[in-house]
Amino acid sequence: MFIRKYISILVFLALAIFGALITRHYGESWDELKFYKYADYALTSYTTWPQEGTIPIFGKTYDNYGPAYVMLVTLAARPLEIIFTTSDARHYVYFITFLAGMWAFYGLSKRFLTHPAALFTTLLFATQPLIWGHAFISPKDIPFLSFFLLTLLFGLRFFDSLEPLQLSDLSPRSRRILLALSALWLATVIGLFLTTDAFLALLTRLVQSAQAGETNIISFIASDIYKVKPEVYIHRYFMFFLWGRSCFFLLCSFLLLFFTYRLHRPIFTILVSALPAAVLLGLSTNIRILGPLAALFIMHYAIRTKGRQAIFPFTIYAIIAIFIMYITWPYLWLNPIGHFIESLHVMSQYPWPGRVLFNGVEYSSMDIPYSYLPVLLGMQMTEPVWVLFVLGLVLAGLRSREKRGLIALTVIWFIIPLVGFIVTRSPLYDNFRQVFFILPPVFMMAGVVLEKIKRPALQIALTILLIMPGIIDGTRLHPYEYIYYNRFAGGVSGVIRKFELDYWGTSYREAAGWLNIHAPDGASVWVDGPAHLLGIYLREDLQMYSSYEEDRAKRYDYIVSTSRYNLDLTSHTDARVVYEIERDGAILTVIRQP
Prior knowledge:
Elements: H1 2-22, H2 32-52, H3 68-80, H4 86-109, H5 115-126, H6 129-137, H7 141-160, H8 172-211, H9 217-221, H10 230-263, H11 265-287, H12 292-306, H13 311-327, H14 336-348, E1 355-358, E2 361-364, H15 372-380, H16 383-398, H17 400-424, H18 440-451, H19 456-477, H20 491-495, H21 508-518, E3 524-527, H22 531-535, E4 543-546, E5 558-562, H23 567-570, E6 576-583, E7 586-593
Parallel strand pairs: 3-4, 3-5
Antiparallel strand pairs: 1-2, 5-7, 6-7
């Protein structure tokens, strides 16, 4: 009885322990380093903004990514560095984030499925080699999937917990006080978004005009305006503005909370209850610009279940979420609306400069064929998934009254976005990792099939049978589970040179491990592609050179080449191969020696 009651907790605990044991097997992924340099820039903003009124700009569109998650990982990984390296500590935080997402998925599934079916579909989802592999190495896609799921779960629970709000017991005087304070607080929030850039521009004009001899408020305040550079006064008064505005905001927030608590506890309860759900929505939007899609699902549910009573709580929920997004995204601080619109444009048409390998042909990410997503979805999920999805869809259709919520969710969350991505030919690359967040309804629908099995022993047997393909293939590919292709595609050996495999270069960790054992002291190593991925793990005495530093006349002791872009077939081919990193016949990295 104890096992049945707490089986989900035991499963997640076991996965957390297992993840800690294997985290060290996974190499750094291609662009992690840049994201953590960007995280350092963003964290620095919390010092430079209040002290200097400046924000370090990272550039190259990275500022258009919200930095909240990578900042959180940077901070959370520090205590874990007692037992892990910095890279491995970050990877374990990714994995814990993934487990949190799977817990949220399990919670959402229980809204539509029986508990055994919900646990089955969670295990089926979590043991997909593609998803499991990314869970350790992805600083963007799996975190967004997890936060999207957490946002939905907590958002739905928030509106489930709402009691009808009765304002009739408030006196007219209390209503006026709360209304005035709410309006004042809202004005301060709007001020955060609209006044910063405008005030700085106005201040600059006033200071420059005063220094040019015109009479204005600055010339009255600053009698020595002619003796110093205008930047000195611009900076000084801008800092006064920032500190004054922050103090005023905190004061208004305190007064609003205090009088709400004293005058009407139910409104205060709504404010407190909305906080976890709103924080998650703000962070989800920070991680990916598509985060507000979760809010649309929640809004639809709230209006359908609570009617007009949902409007006020949802407004509070949205305002807090926007504020959380703002304070965790320094790039927005100076020009919130303008920079958010800029980020929305950049992320919807991300200018990725590389080439996308699909069925043996290289495409621009802006020009992928219509078949791109359907083909990859069919090839990179384990064999039972789509069979179960179709069967579940049929069974749900036959029980349309009972399963109409799940059917609607599948249409809104999976089918419509999928069709939208295909029809608009949205820029995608590295297969379809950017759209992992649309997959949960597929697995929930697969769980409908298990509900038809009533005997617990058969449910357990079927669960084991259906998750085994993912476990077996994931074990065989470990620690490169994310390169998975199913048997319908011929496995990874059937797609080599036709589809992307180790596109994040994580196999360079294994290459470094081999060199650390076999290379003599002071050996020179030339690295093709993402050299920094090798350098993280390479012995300190080994001399590493990359394509940016290559001396064509120099003779290197070892050459390391990735199979991405077929560099293993074109780089230093006159040297003999001394070591290959491969899985199921698919080469990921080669090490050559002249």
